[in-house]
Amino acid sequence: MKFGIVGGIGPASTLDYYDGLTKKYYDATGECAPLVIDSINMYAMTGLLSKGDNEGVTRLILSSLENLSAAGATAAAMASNTPHIVFDELVKRSPLPLLSIVDETCKYIEKMGFRRALILGTEFTMKSGLYSAPLEKYGIKAVTPNEKDMALVHSFIFPKLENGIVDEEDKKKMVATAERYIAEQKADCAVLGCTEIPLMIHEGDFTVPTVNTAGVHIDAIAEFMIKNR
Amino acid sequence: MKFGIVGGIGPASTLDYYDGLTKKYYDATGECAPLVIDSINMYAMTGLLSKGDNEGVTRLILSSLENLSAAGATAAAMASNTPHIVFDELVKRSPLPLLSIVDETCKYIEKMGFRRALILGTEFTMKSGLYSAPLEKYGIKAVTPNEKDMALVHSFIFPKLENGIVDEEDKKKMVATAERYIAEQKADCAVLGCTEIPLMIHEGDFTVPTVNTAGVHIDAIAEFMIKNR
């Protein structure tokens, strides 16, 4: 089977997906991972999201999934948290089965035994409650920053982190903001709910463990590809 | 326009192409590079090459070019030197116009004013004379290692460099081998004629300038994409 990746959202995490998947697949099988990556226009996506045009986002991603299917992919994933806002609609209309970063992350958080998860991500991800409802099904509480802090966290991601640039001043502010919620709302883990945050935040930067959503997703995709090869 | 990359040959240089193209395109346009990457089975390709089955290699690459075309690409390139052995046949049968790493490298060598170029690459690349005839058209002499040294250089590339692993002992032997040809045959530059060699050899490692074929190719593709966007 050949796996398809909707990439470019942002480019830095697409590199992590390709690197991680090819290495994990090679280590397990001694073979080359059959992959196709369609790298889409991140700014077209964020423009639609800013206007609240979720149908537009759905169509943008569907068009990429159709490209991946035409190129021979038989299953796919989006190398990004944000477009998972329209995941349920995508599942209904996608030509390919999809592996969700949110589902895999929730399973991981449950397996690790965390109970109160601080959610960090783009404003779109945090405001939409992308992680809150799915986590609730597992009896896990999502701790979400207030609107002012959402805007602050978002400003660290766009445009710098999305282009692979880590600003040390931004990092200090990110740590201070996260630590305030960890202390006040007793979060026992921090979900790096944007695939670019791990460029800035590493395990040990916070006083609680971090959940690298991109890493969890890559592991799940590699396992799926190896099982179904 | 959307550009297609035949990738996976090997995976490490596909990362360089994606990273280089997205960054150069963003710096020039402020936009996301429209790219699709089809990552093929490197071992299928080298297996066919070892049997001398050039028609098999041509078909393998054509099938990938058809995938890229189906996914919306309107021009393409192979992120590797070796399959350029069948480039002329590919041009005749490809659904997409192709940008050659060999043509771009020859133009670069001429522009730099080099006269005698040491060619380092896979055994397939060195034995086939991939660079000798094109360089001759520009009046530039290709210096090629003897059969024993070809096998040695090839052994540094497969399997370690192709999987992104740099062995320091191999590097010492690579430098010693190259310097022997530079001294004896008066080469005035060294062509890193395999897209993975730049993982090991950097400017300054040899007593003559190096020509990073992947870097030259990426620059040419970025320029083409920006001009035709």
Average pLDDT value of chain A?
A: 96
What structural class should be given to the helix and strand makeup of chain A? alpha/beta
Largest interchain contact: A-B, 29 and 29 residues
Domains of chain A, number: 2
Give a short account of the largest sheet of chain A: 4 strands, parallel
> Gyration radius of chain A, to the nearest Å?
17 Å
Question: Topology as H/E string of chain A?
Answer: EHEHHEHHEHHEHHEEH
Oligomer: homodimer
Assign a percent range to the helix content of chain A: 40-55%
Strand content of chain A: 5-15%
N- to C-terminal distance of chain A:
5 Å
Q: What is the β-strand count of chain A?
A: 7
- Which spans of chain A of ≥5 residues are poorly predicted at pLDDT below 50? none
Tally the helices of chain A: what do you get? 10
Q: Which topology of the largest domain in chain A does CATH recognise?
A: Rossmann fold
Q: In order across it, which strands form the biggest sheet of chain A? A: 5-4-6-7
CATH top-level class of the largest domain in chain A: Alpha Beta
CATH architecture of the largest domain in chain A: 3-Layer(aba) Sandwich
Characterize the overall form of chain A: globular
Describe the protein in words:
The structure is a homodimer of 229-residue chains. Chain A is of the alpha/beta class and 229 residues long. Chain A has two domains: 3-100 and 216-227, 3-Layer(aba) Sandwich (Rossmann fold); 102-212, Rossmann fold (3-Layer(aba) Sandwich). Helices cover 52% and strands 13% of the residues of chain A. Chain A has ten helices and seven strands. The first copy, chain A, has helices at 11-29, 42-50, 54-70, 87-93, 101-112, 123-128, 132-137, 147-157, 168-184, 213-227, and strands at 3-7, 35-39, 75-78, 116-120, 141-143, 189-192, 210-212. The first copy, chain A, has a four-stranded parallel β-sheet with strand order 5-4-6-7, with helices on both faces. The longest helix of chain A has 19 residues, at 11-29. The first copy, chain A, is globular. The mean pLDDT of chain A is 96. Chains A and B meet through helix 1, strand 2 and helix 3 of A and helix 1, strand 2 and helix 3 of B. Strand 2 of chain A pairs antiparallel with strand 2 (35-39) of chain B, so a sheet runs across the interface.
